[in-house]
Amino acid sequence: MKVVKTKGDHVLDLPLHRVSGRGLFVKEIDDLMLAGEIDVAVHSMKDLPSKRPEGLVIGAVLPRDSPLDVLVSDDGVSIDGLEEGAVVGTCSMRRAAQLRRARPDLVIESLRGNLETRLRKLEEGRYRAIVLALAGIERMGYSPNYAVLDPERFVPSANQGAIAVVATEGWAEELVGGIDHLPTRREAECERVFLEEIGGSCVVPMAAFARLSGDEISVLAEVLSLDGARSVRAEGRISAADHLEGARELSRRLVAMGGRDLAEEAVREVGSD
């Protein structure tokens, strides 16, 4: 096993979009794989850019942990129970925009660092509450007080809670094909279609959430303005047997509603800061 410290692991004092954008935790590992130094890499799937280097494929997707976001605080307060003007921490543009839409009175401040660091900053009183992925908390064995955020109001990030196993093309099936979890793969692939169609980067407040039930997949996706004041949303049920085409149709609907325009606006606004 080879442990790789990426740029995203080292730079902790700047918002992610100020460093390099989507792929911050992935590029160095991709380069080592393409150089033949690594055969298989394990990633949080939501960190994987929609455009992948030629020669590398997602060989397996593991069973999904919770895709939900949670509001962590000393007392487990709900989002609607927060005091007016409360300070809430997050490093995600999506979460920040969704928080501003739900509660324009809140003060949203940047929160960086690993999970332990974020929880420590909360404990030190720098924030009234912080938003985290439930999957990360559970994987690390932490048990803070939290309130689950409704996925209809706070649509999760594409692929949140999913783990991807990347391998070189031609060897993926032999190396990791046996651990691929097809239901999670189908959900994750639906969500990634929206990333591909909308474009942008980690600065774009966009979300996509697919849930497989029987032979259908329910899909909910949205793109927001940075201030959360405007948003467009597409949702529907698609056939699991033809999930990619169904997701493309929904994503085209989102684009027609102005989703790509909002994404491009976000990129321009962040770039002009």
Descriptive report:
The chain is α+β, with helices and mostly antiparallel strands and 273 residues long. The protein has two domains: 7-65 and 158-271, Porphobilinogen deaminase, C-terminal domain (Double Stranded RNA Binding Domain, 2-Layer Sandwich); 69-133, D-Maltodextrin-Binding Protein, domain 2, CATH 3.40.190.10. It is 33% helix and 23% strand. It is built from ten helices and eleven strands. The chain has helices at 7-10, 16-19, 27-34, 93-102, 115-123, 134-140, 172-176, 182-198, 243-256, 259-271; strands at 40-44, 56-61, 69-73, 87-89, 107-109, 129-133, 146-148, 163-168, 206-213, 216-224, 231-239. The strands form three sheets. It has a five-stranded mixed sheet with strand order 5-4-6-3-7, sandwiched between helices. Strand 9 (206-213) and strand 10 form a beta hairpin. The protein starts with 6 loop residues before the first helix and ends with a helix. Residues 187-253 form the Porphobilinogen deaminase C-terminal domain. It is an enzyme of class 2 (transferase). One of its GO terms (biological process) is heme biosynthetic process. Its cofactor is dipyrromethane. It holds the Pfam family Porphobil_deam.
What order do the helices and strands come in, and which of them pair?
Blueprint: H1 7-10, H2 16-19, H3 27-34, E1 40-44, E2 56-61, E3 69-73, E4 87-89, H4 93-102, E5 107-109, H5 115-123, E6 129-133, H6 134-140, E7 146-148, E8 163-168, H7 172-176, H8 182-198, E9 206-213, E10 216-224, E11 231-239, H9 243-256, H10 259-271
Parallel strand pairs: 4-5, 4-6
Antiparallel strand pairs: 1-8, 2-8, 3-6, 3-7, 9-10, 10-11
Helix pairs in contact: 8-9
